Amino acid sequence: MSTVQRSLVLVKPDGVRRGLSGEVLRRIEAKGYTLAAVELRTATPELLAAHYAEHEGKPFYGPLVEFMLSGPVLAVVIEGERCIEGFRSLAGATDPTKAAPGTIRGDLGRDWGVAVQQNIVHGSDSEESAAREIGIWFPQLA
Ligand code: IDP
């Protein structure tokens, strides 16, 4: 049975700054997912408040928003069978020190000794999150 999904991927400001946007897109395409939208964007506090609503009140929330505003992000919508779970596998664990080698965070990320985990990418974690996040970043696609 077909379960084609869309997922919202962000190359976070650390990834864009380090010139890893192309490498992330390469891994997405090499996996066989297609790109439905790609756009270099500068986030706003309003957009991030919506995107990270579930984390409001957590100790890392302030540093997370500040970090996400520190430079442009590459906003991407990917498409493919079970691509939500598939991209989470490509990304690896949230903490780049613990992320397995072979994953984006495991191969390319590390701890920088700052308050927020700068872990290169974001990927939606469920169909519900994907629909909500695509609506926030690409309302024209929702
Ligand atoms: P995810 O990006 O792997 O889905 P989430 O739990 O949704 O992880 O957290 C959102 C982002 O917040 C993470 O990607 C990371 O940048 C940051 N973050 C999450 N947990 C922590 C933490 O315990 N300390 C510092 N930063 C964190």
UniProtKB/TrEMBL annotation:
UniProt binding sites for ATP: 12, 60, 88, 94, 105, 119
Record keywords, A-Z: ATP-binding, Cytoplasm, Kinase, Magnesium, Metal-binding, Nucleotide metabolism, Nucleotide-binding, Phosphoprotein, Transferase
GO biological process: CTP biosynthetic process; GTP biosynthetic process; UTP biosynthetic process
Swiss-Prot/TrEMBL cofactor(s): Mg(2+)
Reactions mediated catalytically: a 2'-deoxyribonucleoside 5'-diphosphate + ATP = a 2'-deoxyribonucleoside 5'-triphosphate + ADP; a ribonucleoside 5'-diphosphate + ATP = a ribonucleoside 5'-triphosphate + ADP
Entry's localization field: Cytoplasm
Pfam families listed in its UniProt record: NDK
Cross-referenced InterPro entries: NDK-like_dom, NDK-like_dom_sf, Nucleoside_diP_kinase, Nucleoside_diP_kinase_AS
Nucleoside diphosphate kinase-like domain sequence ranges: 4-141
PROSITE patterns: NDPK, NDPK_LIKE
Taxonomic superkingdom: Bacteria
Main location: cytoplasm
E.C. designation(s): 2.7.4.6
Record-level GO cellular component terms: cytoplasm
GO molecular function: ATP binding; metal ion binding; nucleoside diphosphate kinase activity
List of catalytic residues: 122 (pros-phosphohistidine intermediate)
Top-level enzyme category: transferase
Role this protein plays: Major role in the synthesis of nucleoside triphosphates other than ATP. The ATP gamma phosphate is transferred to the NDP beta phosphate via a ping-pong mechanism, using a phosphorylated active-site intermediate.
Similarity annotation: Belongs to the NDK family.
Record's subunit section: Homotetramer.
Name this polypeptide is given: Nucleoside diphosphate kinase
Species of origin: Nocardioides ganghwensis
Name of the coding gene: ndk
